[in-house]
Write a structure and sequence with these properties.
The complex is a heterodimer of chains A (about 800) and B (about 180).
Chain A: E1 23-26, H1 45-49, E2 65-71, E3 77-83, H2 85-88, E4 93-98, E5 120-121, E6 127-133, H3 136-145, E7 147-152, H4 159-164, E8 190-198, H5 201-207, E9 210-218, E10 230-235, E11 242-246, H6 251-262, E12 269-273, H7 288-298, E13 304-307, H8 310-316, E14 318-319, E15 322-331, E16 337-349, H9 355-365, E17 374-383, E18 388-389, H10 397-415, H11 419-426, H12 445-455, E19 464-466, E20 472-483, E21 489-496, E22 502-506, H13 515-527, E23 534-536, H14 555-582, E24 589-591, E25 596-599, E26 606-608, H15 612-615, E27 625-631, E28 653-664, E29 671-681, H16 688-707, E30 713-714, E31 717-718, E32 737-744, H17 765-777, E33 783-784, H18 788-792
Chain B: E1 3-10, E2 13-20, H1 25-32, E3 51-54, E4 57-60, E5 73-75, H2 88-95, H3 105-118, H4 124-130, H5 142-160, H6 165-170
Parallel strand pairs in B: 1-5
Antiparallel strand pairs in B: 1-2, 3-4, 3-5
Helix pairs in contact in B: 2-5
The chains are: A alpha+beta (about 800), B alpha+beta (about 180).
Chain lengths: ~800, ~180
């Protein structure tokens, strides 16, 4: 039976109300495109809807062994001995390895982490031994029989403990190989720090009529990806050829790490990427991959599959760090900001991992999208005996936005100003100078603030009110700016198949954000070609060209540019082939906007792109294949470490705002988010449904961050490391009237004007909700999540 | 290890298998029948990615033993499409944009089939309540509810156009 033709369906009726999710406000882009800017069915949708998509754990090989890890029950302890005798005796066990087998430490910024703990363990759940066996049961049983003798060490459980430096997690930073982007302080628990200075904050405070000081803490979060970490490795111990199948966000950085850990040339390491069951930064680091490789090497090259269970996922993968911020703001009576001082401490966990990048991105975002002439930001990556902090959808900018937006509301209250008005008065416009002294371009924070407010009916609502059921109600708003990782480079290959269809080889990974649909859209638009004939090829580091990582909301911008460059080349090659066929000069052939390869001197002589395959122009000719490259090293002005002033710290700023309406039950302390209004400057919506998906999903994720989610540690022991006790939003939390505006304020360097939207949807959500709850309760809640006990024991403000 | 012989119907096919007594339905489906659409997310019944139908009722396949399934009928996501044509719910999930990373999708679809078995014309409140055991981290759920309503519309239209097999399929997996 024939398949139905599937078409995107937007604006579905919801209980009688049509909630308008898509309002496009165009500023610069023209909107004349035929593929770009139109909602498309996702390329990966049918495989995912039929259960045939292949995720990490769906990969299996004949002769495959199963891996399992022995984990430390202690958060901080010296390893005195590891006895693997009983483990080796379990029937079916083939290999047991310990830290001594592969002692080479790794780390993106500083190589401080062994793949298996060597001399001591630094967090609960750290791997102390690993097993490969014929069955998963045998592997797990053997792992539980590895005997480890520990000498317990004092536990650094919090930022306060960490900065005392009485117990050091890493005794000697100088032993580790360290990149030029990481600044650990010898003899302390500080793994890195960030310092930004603009103007003179003391002068700014002297000019102010009012100084406001506050603090804010964002709790520790787990990504809670539904697909846990997994990897299957086949590593030949003789040739040192290493193959790894994994659902990872950064194939090339993991390839480099594995090559280094195992001392093999980079080209011998092959990463074959499976579908990813949720990324959000959680699959950016090497977790299962090196351990699976180590086991396979020791097992004579048999494939080894290592999959973490949910408990391991919580305690032994990665998380979003806790951060404690302090902020001091100077403001004039009329609401003009004069100075802002921010100090922050990240609870980075036991190893540095990606925290320097989180700290850096958050640092550039810590005063928000506001004109502040005098700024000082000092933040520190503090090591503790907790699980490892890493990127989590926004690289720290979500936490920074929560800080500055909470502060803006306090400032507004003390000045008796309307919160939105204070923001509009201070927000950045084109031509202003940003926090690093950079000239601001294509900045629509004003439009976003107004649109987000309008989307909840801001002007008609008071700051707080009590509804007929006695609930405390309030509204809140928040805006943000976020940089993207700069400099970074990407490349792609576009190849025409014999039938005239196109393959794009790009390592921008599909993890639900839709990049395997948007990249073909660019090619389809450029070539004037049917989208069905273009697809992204599977990603394999031996053939797929380099892309830095799939992070930082960079893929559509960077890889889109690369695809467009390659498509221009494809057009030229096709014109050349046509000229050979037509025996004419190649300059006499052009590629038209309608997708015709056409003779200039005779418009009758032409081939449409859809007919190229059967036209015969490619027959026995050189293959049609093109390279596209894009990088931002040339436009980047490296921000120096002393003050981080730079004319171009980022190729683009992502901008947006969200507003929330909440009702708080004063008896139970439960908060219900009733309305969310969002407005994001996305530059250009390539696949509008895809943009909305990102924002809608982020809003519900942000409800969890604002009101529910928190990893709870006591003395380094994780108390809620499972999905029963760690609550993420469910279907029942999704009943939120949501209205989203996509602001298309085209970026001159973005393909078709695009910016990024993967992370931004989440950045202002928790901040807007927290502000609404603060208004509803007339209380300055100074930490997230805001839980019922905080509400029931609140202290109302009286200034 | 004790082994149990079972006769179980999965997606309309009868299987005679001998399984270890402690093997979960999830692992039986994945490892013995190669039905990888059923996903492991937490192995403790919290995430919903493991949802399959047993005699028409949604089950946590990670908490049910394969040995318990003798004589019973199991439906997984692989059994939804028929004759190469997608089930209306699958079509609707795709069209309404209810899929992002897709890892929760098979479980969501199976919960949606169970929901429609129970409430052929569900309200949004019923959808939320019946499907709350399925966690999705990407979509924010609203489009999944949209998709269920769109599927209902599709099935109603198909019924009006006298194409009864569309509706029968939703009820597949219900013990006759």
């Amino acid at each position: 039976m024939a398949q139905h033709v599937l078409t995107p369906c937007e604006k579905y009726q919801r209980e009688g109300h049509e909630w308008d999710r898509l309002v496009v406000k165009r500023k610069d882009t023209d909107g004349v495109e035929t593929v770009v800017g139109h909602s498309q069915i996702r390329k990966d949708a049918i495989a995912k809807a039929t259960g045939t998509a292949q995720y990490g754990a769906d990969v299996n090989f004949p002769g495959q062994l199963y891996g399992a890890c022995t984990r430390s029950p202690h958060p901080h302890a010296r390893i005195l001995s590891v006895n693997t005798e009983k483990a080796r005796a379990v029937p079916g066990v083939r290999v047991v390895i310990t830290g001594k087998d592969y002692p080479e430490p790794y780390g993106q910024f500083i190589a401080d982490q062994p793949i298996i703990a060597l001399d001591k363990v630094r967090y609960q759940g750290e791997t102390v031994a690993a097993v490969a066996a014929e069955t998963e049961e045998a592997a797990r049983e053997a792992a539980s029989l590895v005997e480890v003798e520990y000498e317990l060490l004092p536990v650094v459980n919090s930022i306060e403990d960490s900065i005392k430096n009485e117990t050091l997690i890493h005794e000697d930073w100088s032993r580790y190989e360290c990149s030029s982007a990481c600044f650990p302080e010898q003899g302390t628990n500080i793994g890195d720090s960030f310092h930004l200075n603009k103007g003179d904050v003391e002068k700014g405070f002297a000019e102010a009529d009012l100084i406001v000081e506050s603090k804010f803490l964002c709790g520790q979060l787990q990504h809670t990806l539904i697909e846990t970490h997994t990897a299957t490795a086949q590593a030949n111990p003789y040739t040192k050829e290493i193959d790894v199948w994994t659902p990872n966000q950064s194939p090339f950085s993991i390839r480099g790490l594995i090559a280094k850990i195992f001392g093999v040339p980079t080209e011998k390491v092959r990463l074959i990427m499976t579908d990813i069951g949720g990324g959000f930064g959680g699959k950016y680091e090497a977790k299962c991959e090196p351990i699976a490789v180590a086991l396979s090497l020791k097992a004579g090259g048999r494939p080894v599959k290592l999959t973490y269970d949910r408990h391991e996922e919580f305690e032994a993968t990665v998380c979003r760090s806790t951060v404690q911020y302090y902020i001091k703001t100077g403001v004039k009576k009329d609401g003009t900001l004069t100075a802002q001082l921010v100090t922050g401490y990240w609870d980075a966990g036991a190893y540095v991992t990606t925290n320097p990048r989180v700290d850096y991105n958050a640092g550039f975002a810590a005063v928000g999208p506001y004109k502040v002439p005098n700024v000082k930001i000092d933040t520190y990556v503090c090591m503790t005996n907790r699980t490892l902090g890493t990127a989590y959808r926004g690289f720290g900018v979500t936490e920074a936005a929560t800080l500055h937006e909470h502060q803006m509301d306090i400032v507004a209250r003390k000045l008796h100003m309307e919160p939105l008005k204070l923001r509009l008065q201070n927000c950045l416009h084109d031509g202003d100078y940003g926090v690093s002294g950079d000239l601001i371009m294509t900045c629509a924070v004003d439009e976003c603030l107004r649109a987000a407010a309008e989307n909840i009916g801001w002007d008609k609502l008071p700051d707080r009110w009590v509804d007929e059921e006695g609930n405390l109600c309030g509204k809140g708003i928040a805006c943000f700016n976020k940089l993207t990782g700069t400099p970074s480079t990407t490349s792609c290959v576009v190849k025409m198949n014999e039938n005239g269809s196109l393959f794009i080889w790009s390592a921008s990974r599909e993890m639900g954000q839709g990049v395997t649909t948007t990249l073909p859209q660019f090619a389809a638009e450029s070539m004037h070609m049917d989208l069905d004939r273009i697809s992204v090829a599977p990603v394999d580091t031996t053939v797929t060209p380099y892309d830095k990582t799939t992070t930082s909301s960079r893929s559509t911008f960077h890889s889109g540019n690369a695809v467009l460059e390659a498509c221009e080349d494809i057009k030229k090659q096709l014109c050349k082939l046509a000229s050979i066929k037509w025996s004419c000069d190649e300059n006499d052939v052009t590629y038209t906007d309608e997708g015709y390869i056409q003779r200039i001197s005779d418009a009758e002589q032409r081939i449409h792109i859809h007919d190229v395959g059967k036209s015969g122009i490619m027959h026995e000719q050189l293959p049609v294949i093109a390279i596209g490259r894009y990088g931002t090293s040339d436009i980047f002005d490296p921000p120096p470490v002393d003050g981080r002033q730079s004319s171009r710290p980022t190729v683009m700023w992502m901008i947006g705002a969200q507003a929330a309406v909440v009702k708080v039950n004063p008896i139970t302390g439960l908060v219900k988010v009733t309305k969310m209004g969002a407005a994001h400057d996305i530059g250009k919506a390539i696949n509008p449904t895809g943009c909305l998906q990102q924002i809608e999903g982020a809003i519900v994720m942000g409800i969890g961050h604002a009101l529910m989610e928190e990893m709870i540690y006591e003395d380094g022991n994780l108390r809620n490391g499972n999905m029963v006790d760690y609550k993420v939003p469910t279907f029942m939390d999704s009943d939120v009237e949501t209205k989203i505006t996509l602001v298309e304020n085209g970026h001159p360097e973005g393909p078709y004007g695009v910016k990024g939207i993967g992370e931004p949807g989440l950045v202002p959500t928790a901040a807007a909700i927290a502000n609404a709850v603060c208004h509803a309760c007339n209380t300055d809640f100074d930490s997230l999540p805001i839980k019922p006990e905080h509400i029931l024991f609140r202290k109302e403000v009286n200034d | 290890m004790q082994y149990v012989e079972i006769n179980v119907t999965v997606n309309g096919e009868l299987y005679n298998k001998t399984v270890p007594a402690n093997k979960t339905l999830l692992r039986f489906l994945r490892e013995d029948l190669f039905l990888n659409g059923v996903k492991e997310g937490c192995n403790e019944g919290e995430c919903g990615a493991f949802t399959v139908l047993v005699d028409g009722e949604p089950m946590n396949s990670c908490l049910v033993l394969a040995a318990e399934l003798n004589g019973r009928e199991v439906l997984t996501v692989e059994g939804l499409a028929q004759d190469g044509r997608l089930h209306p719910l699958q079509e609707a999930f795709i069209e309404a944009g209810a899929i992002q990373c897709g890892y929760c999708t098979p479980g969501m679809l199976m919960s949606a089939v169970a929901l429609l078995n129970r409430y052929p014309h569900p309200t949004r409140a019923q959808i939320r309540k019946e499907m709350e055991g399925n966690i999705c981290r990407c979509t924010g759920y609203t489009r999944i509810a949209d998709a269920v309503l769109l599927a209902v519309e599709k099935m109603d239209t198909a019924e009006k156009n006298q194409s009864p097999q569309r509706n029968q399929k939703v009820l597949a997996g219900t013990k006759k």
